[in-house]
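I'll show one example:
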Amino acid sequence: MVATLRRIGDEWSLTLDDQSLKDLGWDADRPLKIEKTPDGRGLILSPATEEDGGPARLARVREIGTKLTDRHESVLRKLAE
């Protein structure tokens, strides 16, 4: 598999094709753990686990975001105007 590194704003993005993601069993919202290879010249991508702050952390962040939005809805609407 070959992917292209692209600049998007102030960040970089690595785009993977749909078939590669399907083969790996990954979806768009899957948290990934990124590690350097031992020689420091590459990266290893793997699904994040609970210990890495994976799905449970993502669920907690979403829960906090929902509570914040519910609690401060009027203020957020004013800011959006």
